[in-house]
Write a structure and sequence with these properties.
The chain has 2 domains: about 130 residues, 3-Layer(aba) Sandwich (Rossmann fold), CATH 3.40.50.720; about 190 residues, NAD(P)-binding Rossmann-like Domain (Rossmann fold, 3-Layer(aba) Sandwich), CATH 3.40.50.720. Strands 8-7-6-9-10-11-12 form a 7-stranded parallel sheet, with helices on both faces. Helix 7 links the parallel strand 6 and strand 7. It is built from 13 helices and 12 strands. By secondary structure, the chain is an alpha/beta fold. It binds NADP nicotinamide-adenine-dinucleotide phosphate. The site of NADP nicotinamide-adenine-dinucleotide phosphate (NAP) has 30 residues, from helix 7.
Length: about 325
């Protein structure tokens, strides 16, 4: 039997929804092997040897791994963040990287705003108060929260998701927004609905002025460890810190110090330096921390939309066409 050259070897390294897997299988020879599942690790390494395309997420792909994949042409990440991929290694080999911008923007902004609400109004703590049968009389000041509306929000990383958070804050909650990014926006032209409501602000000034600081930056060499002792020390007394981007942007020891010995009121965290969060991490049960299991984009609708876009990216690339969402290495 002669093999059909248009059918390429594809390695799926994280589970895809059945309809998207079927799209791939209709056109290509597909191996599904998740390297995080011990029983599938050998199959993953074996498939690397012939794979021309890979699709998945949340697994580091570096120089060493790429040496095992001599025929690889394209990686389609089911994520917008590309911090798991050693970008110079991909660039050196001319391997295309695709990702899923846009389709998860509003859902991730919802998650970040949920953390703002939860930390300010102490929602988890107070829900547990009811659940545990401690609501035996009207609550007093010791359980009051803090208003969100009208507070100043500082957003670190003002791209798609940061701007979606800003719309919620400025238009829905009357919050003045300060934002930090390397290139200021022409708000009148690019975000007219936020004209007069968002202000480009240097990092130190933003930290000193914001009541709530939310991180929505990509993880890169420049942003790794960005929030350290000095930065938490600059934050306003009683401020709230939110991380909806990547755990490694924050030095967790510095965050813990600010929670235990500084004036930080609370932290809302969707992401951590190590995930799943180790059981012995002090952040897991810290009374001032609301911790989520990396659910930024985790809704039925959005995870499916991400899988559809990632599958379309891979199919286009393997067909020699321009995929809808190629990651631009020059923006890293
Ligand atoms: P984006 O549109 O590319 O926005 C990134 C923003 O960060 C831009 O405004 C960029 O502006 C700024 N930036 C990049 N590097 C910077 C630096 N060194 N210093 C200051 N600003 C910098 O990305 P997005 O779609 O909003 O996603 C942002 C990140 O959110 C992703 O990379 C991902 O890690 C994270 N995320 C997390 C979840 C979750 O589940 N929690 C879900 C989705 C995304 P300049 O280039 O002008 O600096």
């Amino acid at each position: 039997m002669t093999s059909n050259p248009s059918r390429k070897k594809v390695l799926v390294f994280r589970e895809l929804p059945p309809d998207q897997l079927a799209r791939l299988q209709a056109q290509h020879e597909v191996t599904v092997a998740d390297p995080r599942v011990p029983e599938q690790l050998a199959a993953f390494h074996a498939a690397l040897g012939t794979a021309e395309g890979m699709i998945g997420s949340s697994y580091p792909i570096d120089y060493a791994l790429l040496t095992q994949a001599p025929r690889l042409k394209v990686i389609s990440s089911v994520s917008v963040g590309v911090d798991n991929y050693t970008l110079p290694a991909l660039a050196a080999r001319g391997i295309m990287l695709c990702h899923t911008p846009g389709v998860l923007t509003e859902t991730t902004a919802d998650t970040i705003f949920s953390l703002i609400m939860a930390t300010s109004r102490r929602l988890v703590e107070l829900a547990n108060h009811v659940r545990e049968g401690r609501w035996t009389r009207n609550i007093g000041e010791e359980l009051f929260g803090w208003d969100v509306h009208g507070k100043t929000l500082g957003i670190l990383g003002f791209g798609r998701i940061g701007q979606a958070v800003a719309r919620r804050a400025a238009l829905g909650f009357g919050m003045p927004v300060l934002y930090y990014r390397r290139s200021p926006l022409d708000v009148a032209r690019e975000l007219p609905e936020l004209l007069g409501k968002v202000t480009h602000t240097p990092l130190d000034e933003l930290l000193a002025r914001a009541d709530i600081v939310a991180v929505v930056l990509p993880l890169s060499d420049e942003t790794r460890g960005l929030m350290g002792v000095r930065e938490f020390g600059l934050m306003k007394p009683g401020a709230i810190f939110i991380n909806g981007a990547r755990g490694a942007i924050v030095q967790e020891s510095a965050l813990l110090h600010a929670l235990d010995h500084g004036t930080l009121r609370a932290a809302g965290l969707d992401v951590f330096a190590r995930e799943p969060l180790p059981l012995d991490s002090p952040l897991r049960i810290h009374p001032k921390v609301t911790a989520l299991p990396h659910i930024g984009s985790a809704t039925f609708e959005t995870r499916h939309a991400m899988a559809v876009l990632a599958t379309s990216n891979l199919l286009s690339a393997l067909a020699g066409k321009r995929p809808p969402a190629v990651f631009d290495f020059s923006t890293a």
